[in-house]
Amino acid sequence: MDTNQTDKRNKKEDPAVTNFREYLRIKTVHPFPDYDGAIDFLGRMAEGIGLPMKKIEVSPGRIVVLMTWEGTNPSLPSILLNSHTDVVPVFAEHWKVDPFSAEKFENGDIYARGTQDMKSVGIQYLEAIRRLKNEGKKLKRTIHLSFVPDEEIGGNSGMGRFVYDEEFKKLNVGFALDEGLANPSEAYTVFYGERRAWWLRVKCTGNPGHGSRFIENTAAEKLRKVINSFLDFRAKEEEKLKGNSCLRLGNVTTVNLTMLEGGVQYNVVPRELAAGFDIRIPPEVDLKVFEERIKSWCEAAGNGVTHEFIQKSEGKNVTSTDGSDPWWNAFYAACTEMGMKIEAEIFPAATDSRFLRDAGYTAVGFSPMNNTPILLHDHDEHLNENVFLKGIDIYCTIIPALADVPHSK
Ligand SMILES: CSCC[C@H](NC(C)=O)C(=O)O
Ligand SMILES: [Zn+2]
Ligand SMILES: [Zn+2]
């Protein structure tokens, strides 16, 4: 890139974009995220905006940063704006620029890990609050902003703990916003629920012996049956999705064979082989029935086939998208009044929203990124600065609409 051009652009850069790029340069990347760097940065942001900030250690060395903008009626249930500070690792050699340089191209595309997932959202919340405060706005309900660690490694040591912490209970949360996904079209996607993640390890045992013989009842024969049952089901679900344009990924069950373990030597038939599956189940599927199905697939594969869950999410809470629900109504009306097209879906993977919903809170997943390819966890993750800035405008409308929800919830 022509650095003169970049400098020229940067001179007139919106300060919100500059803050976003600074946040992106902090390497909060697993497996050793620089959380101290993020906390220092957020502390400076809070000070600049005039928001009181708390640090809450929810598990050893894992700190949630909490900022608060008190409402005119702080006894009302509050609004929580949640984002996670960590990002997933990169394969830097496959990026066109250093993934932690936050380089901006001529067309305004900013490249960095976390541009979509989800440092953009964290800064958009803050810049929206800064603008609303500077305009002298007073909101009825208190707004809390939480910046949580460890979402990218499952969230158990971050939001999974925070949501049951006394400090969280004190927040009296009525409604929470958390992350969503980009949408390549003009529309914005909003998530009102998530599929349940089941990570399953199926172990097959059988007779060992010499690799040159026809050994009977081997672990491999059983494993083949297990894999076929799971993957046949996968194919049916894929067909279901492809055959019905009303369905989205979040409405069907996905199964992927993600792990294979076993074997000691090429000429030894192993006594034990195991397969790992990543299964994602929509909220409407009855988990008991589905688990029975899994058991029957394992039983049908022969004796000595057992299974264990590595991850088993069971929550089935979804946020109401009924027009009569005051939270949804406020959110949806604010969006549509701005002329936004909304597509309400089930999130195909897992976010921190599941902890909030499982603990009984109303949560919506929303990252205001339209006309943007979905690049979370991918090489060359990027976001255009204009989309980013438009997101701040959007929050400047949505946040007051939620904070002014008039009912007694
Ligand atoms: C079950 S914890 C894992 C969380 C992770 N979230 C995302 C967004 O990739 C996932 O769905 O695999
Ligand atoms: Zn995320
Ligand atoms: Zn992620």
List the defining traits of the structure above.
eight-stranded mixed sheet, single chain, Aminopeptidase, binds zinc ion, zinc, ArgE/DapE_CS, 11 helices, 409 residues, metal ion binding, Alpha-Beta Plaits, 2 domains, binds N-acetylmethionine, 33% helix, alpha+beta, aminoacylase activity, EC 3.5.1.14, globular
Report what the structure shows.
This protein is α+β, with helices and mostly antiparallel strands and 409 residues long. It folds into two domains: 3-180 and 351-403, Zn peptidases (Aminopeptidase); 196-312, Alpha-Beta Plaits (2-Layer Sandwich). The protein contains eleven helices and 17 strands. The strands form four sheets. It has an eight-stranded mixed sheet with strand order 1-2-6-3-7-16-8-15. The mean pLDDT is 96. Bound molecules: N-acetylmethionine and zinc ion (2 copies).
Brief summary:
This protein has 409 residues and is α+β, with helices and mostly antiparallel strands. The protein contains eleven helices and 17 strands.
**What is the number of helical segments per DSSP (H or I, 4+ residues)?**
11
Bound molecules: N-acetylmethionine, zinc ion
Structural class: alpha+beta
Quaternary structure classification: single chain
Outline the low-pLDDT stretches.
none
Q: What share of the residues does DSSP label as strand, in percent?
A: 15-25%
- Average predicted confidence as pLDDT: 96
Mind sketching the topology for me?
Blueprint lengths: L2 H9 L3 H11 L9 H15 L3 E7 L2 E8 L8 E7 L18 E2 L4 E3 L7 H16 L8 E6 L10 H4 L3 H5 L2 E6 L9 E7 L1 E10 L3 E2 L8 H24 L11 E9 L5 E2 L2 E10 L5 H14 L4 E8 L13 H12 L4 E6 L5 H6 L3 E5 L15 E3 H19 L6
Parallel strand pairs: 3-6, 3-7, 7-16, 8-15
Antiparallel strand pairs: 1-2, 2-6, 4-5, 5-17, 8-16, 9-13, 9-14, 10-12, 11-13
The protein binds N-acetylmethionine (AME) and zinc ion (2 copies).
The site of one zinc ion has 5 residues, from loops.
